[in-house]
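Sequence design from tokenized structure. All designs in this work follow the same two-part layout: the structure record, then the generated sequence. An example of the structure record is given first.
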């Protein structure tokens, strides 16, 4: 018997390698592929339009990867004066490792509701929010 890993991209391949190393026969057969969205080219402009202290939400590792690559390809850096948020610790760690930016996430409830319960969400007056998500991803 073999395990069929359907996760897309390198994360699926990594999981298969880990399973194989543990003695579990695993095959990588992704059911879908994740590709850059059409609006990704607008990201540098959108980031430049934000005011210092505004909020940027990154909802997945894939969103982090595509956004980071887009910015690095044109020599654009993540702004240190913005506040970055993720839904969970894995995406937060992934973003922080790639960008060296501080990122906030809910410790106890790694979901949208957890993000909305963060202290920073109590006062959103005059804040602009930018959500980096996949096509059809959940909005706040």
């Amino acid at each position: 018997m073999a395990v069929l890993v359907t996760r897309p991209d390198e994360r699926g391949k990594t999981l298969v390698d880990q399973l194989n190393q543990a003695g579990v026969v695993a095959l990588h057969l992704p059911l879908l592929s994740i590709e850059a969205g059409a609006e990704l080219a607008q990201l540098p402009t959108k980031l430049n339009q934000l005011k210092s202290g505004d909020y940027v939400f990154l909802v997945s590792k894939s969103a982090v990867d595509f956004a980071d690559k887009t910015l690095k390809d044109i020599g654009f850096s993540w702004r240190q004066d913005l506040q970055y948020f993720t839904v969970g610790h894995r995406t937060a760690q992934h973003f922080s490792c790639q960008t060296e930016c501080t990122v906030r996430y809910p410790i106890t409830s790694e979901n949208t509701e957890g993000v909305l319960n963060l202290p920073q969400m109590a006062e959103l007056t005059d804040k602009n929010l930018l959500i980096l998500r996949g096509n059809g991803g959940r909005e706040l």
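The chain has a mean pLDDT of 90. We note this feature because it recurs in several other targets discussed in the main text.
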